[in-house]
Amino acid sequence: VDLFRSLMKSAFVVERQPCMPMHPDRPLVIKTGVQFTNKVRLLVKFPELNYQLKIKLLFNTAWFRFAFCTETKQSRKFNILGTNTKVMNMEESNNGSLSAEFKHLASLIVTEELHLITFETEVYHQGLKIDLETHSLPVVVISNICQMPNAWASILWYNMLTNHPKNVNFFTKPPVGTWDQVAEVLSWQFSSTTKRGLTIEQLTTLAEKLLGPSVNYSGCQITWAKFCKENMAGKGFSFWVWLDNIIDLVKKYILALWNEGYIMGFISKERERAILSPKPPGTFLLRFSESSKEGGITFTWVEKDISGKTQIQSVEPYTKQQLNNMSFADIIMGYKIMDATNILVSPLVYLYPDIPKEDAFGKYCRPESAPEPEMGGGDSTNIIQPYLKTKFICVTPLPKISHNPSM
Amino acid sequence: VDLFRSLMKSAFVVERQPCMPMHPDRPLVIKTGVQFTNKVRLLVKFPELNYQLKIKLLFNTAWFRFAFCTETKQSRKFNILGTNTKVMNMEESNNGSLSAEFKHLASLIVTEELHLITFETEVYHQGLKIDLETHSLPVVVISNICQMPNAWASILWYNMLTNHPKNVNFFTKPPVGTWDQVAEVLSWQFSSTTKRGLTIEQLTTLAEKLLGPSVNYSGCQITWAKFCKENMAGKGFSFWVWLDNIIDLVKKYILALWNEGYIMGFISKERERAILSPKPPGTFLLRFSESSKEGGITFTWVEKDISGKTQIQSVEPYTKQQLNNMSFADIIMGYKIMDATNILVSPLVYLYPDIPKEDAFGKYCRPESAPEPEMGGGDSTNIIQPYLKTKFICVTPLPKISHNPSM
DNA sequence: ACAGTTTCCCGTAAATGC
DNA sequence: TGCATTTACGGGAAACTG
């Protein structure tokens, strides 16, 4: 009987972890006020167990709450490091409040708080009542979608570094990961939502951002803080926030170009210069902005200046806001330099290494001129005056005269 | 005592009608799930009435519900025309359902349903208890902000045509208005939310849209249907929806230009041709799109073609979507015609009647080149390579060769 | 004051109801 | 089926809160 009971208990499992329907790629992050779905299953199936399983869902069950948490306010908790019982001693207190005595009380930020969702049910078999219980992996609860990037980072870090099913204190002392683990996870962030993961070259550029210049990153350790909590040197945002905004940019604005492999994306400016310099003028590549938190993309091309010297040029990165109105393919195809006499010339000819830009981007451009749906002239005039079609193009006006950049 | 009682009753008034804080210009429209505020006041104030008035708010009180409405579902009602009592007669029924017998059951669309919010309180004075009650003007309840234009039209029409404090059946047979009344309301829609109402010329253009060509619109009648329910001839939207989207465009995208009086806006294409033709080439005016439901704005200019003939040209109207990324002033200042040799020329010189465009729009343009916040070149290279600044401009590419428009 | 967090609510899209 | 209406929820902004 005990054997049967324990068999049944291990057969009650979470088949699909809690997940918001709008974010199938990011399970275990749930948002207040937004529905989530999950699935539990009883793996054994006897014909005589002819019942409808009633499943009860509990959030942060009492056992976990008492073991690990002290409550503050309604729903948020603070995890206690070490013991949660201590003899209170008024004399040790220096501010009159006993709460200060919990020296190990560590307040986690909301996206590092892990919660468990517990499922309970009961089955009856041959007069025997068996209570079954299972629970989700640790879940992060957010209140605004802008917390999704950090919340998802927590889920990634947890599942990259532990198989423990319910270590809700994980982030009170988050373990380090190796570059090899991180690289796999980063590439998977792309391959699971697009048709293309990250190349060795792209990953090496990312490793350099996290760990500094080196010849071999294998085995290097990366802390949770480095990955997600500290701002990058000279930047106002963390590595992960930067990268996640790029993932978002790729998915929403340049997915087709990414899938084609047209976007080198992650490449250092030194390497960019090295590979473009020997190429014919007009050769260009596409890379992400390193300085924009929100995710930006730019192109860099090689040209010869008036003295015949090779120049590497980039435009100011395009933002999601700009890509809302104009596809990146249209921007690339239409980009022009305007000289002092108002003549337009495109500096972009070949996508690195040598693909004519028309071949690469032509099929992703808006057709040049659609039929005219509306007439600009009055309905009753005999001269039908069609509206002039317009298009937005992106131009760089050159200064009228060359001068040094001190101005 | 009765005098005192009735004095008190008339002293309990709604000081501010129900209104969503985010829409102070549009009282009496409230949205499900969004807070609204209102204020009631007792105008008399005796020192001995030293109490805190407790106000109770009721939505569609029983009396109104029973007098005018039969309930369906939870909250929406159908208004009954004529009597609401009738002897039921199974034999007259042709579908087995008695509800079909209410021949005058008229279903109003949601933005024509009027509701009353009632406020109740009680005061005690010299041993006398007085029940007080007052109510809001009729309110429209919407469930999505996209219903706001039609809901606001209902509030406008109601308050333009009646002083009745609670005629919730108003839209079962909405009265007509005169052009004079409508014109005042339309101008007020602009003057109450911007610094400028509508001119006689602008109003005349609008009158022509509603009533057709005429020399004098004063006294002409405009039906509710014409104003808000029927689509305009050849268009997929009503007069009011068109106009309200323009009001929104003005408020959100071109408020400064509107306040300056730079936007002629409402002008027929015939009149536009008449006033521009005698002007020097490059003279232009700004007007709203007549064909776009969403609110669009364009410019029309006069030019001489190669044969010296005067031409009137307009560009395809700009949408809110486009104005999100680029201000209209920037578009006007940057607009260029591109000829076959890739040379850019601006066809816009003077804002009608004769204001140089720089004088009118220069101060509303983004400064030509801001300081460079980010370097495109690598941090460790000795050649600092600034990102090239870019701007979007709106161009009309001319066809390579003149041909007839049959293509 | 200030930063982390939540609330508010528009506006687009999808679902629902009739 | 098609149209009217509601629901869902991202995303920007404001409000809240310690």
Automatic annotation (TrEMBL), chains A, B:
<feature type="domain" description="SH2">
    <location>
        <begin position="258"/>
        <end position="348"/>
    </location>
</feature>
<dbReference type="GO" id="GO:0005737">
    <property type="term" value="C:cytoplasm"/>
</dbReference>
<dbReference type="GO" id="GO:0003700">
    <property type="term" value="F:DNA-binding transcription factor activity"/>
</dbReference>
<keyword id="KW-0238">DNA-binding</keyword>
<dbReference type="GO" id="GO:0003677">
    <property type="term" value="F:DNA binding"/>
</dbReference>
<dbReference type="GO" id="GO:0007165">
    <property type="term" value="P:signal transduction"/>
</dbReference>
<keyword id="KW-0804">Transcription</keyword>
<keyword id="KW-0963">Cytoplasm</keyword>
<keyword id="KW-0010">Activator</keyword>
<comment type="similarity">
    <text>Belongs to the transcription factor STAT family.</text>
</comment>
<keyword id="KW-0597">Phosphoprotein</keyword>
<protein>
    <recommendedName>
        <fullName>Signal transducer and activator of transcription</fullName>
    </recommendedName>
</protein>
<keyword id="KW-0805">Transcription regulation</keyword>
<keyword id="KW-0539">Nucleus</keyword>
<keyword id="KW-0727">SH2 domain</keyword>
<dbReference type="GO" id="GO:0005634">
    <property type="term" value="C:nucleus"/>
</dbReference>
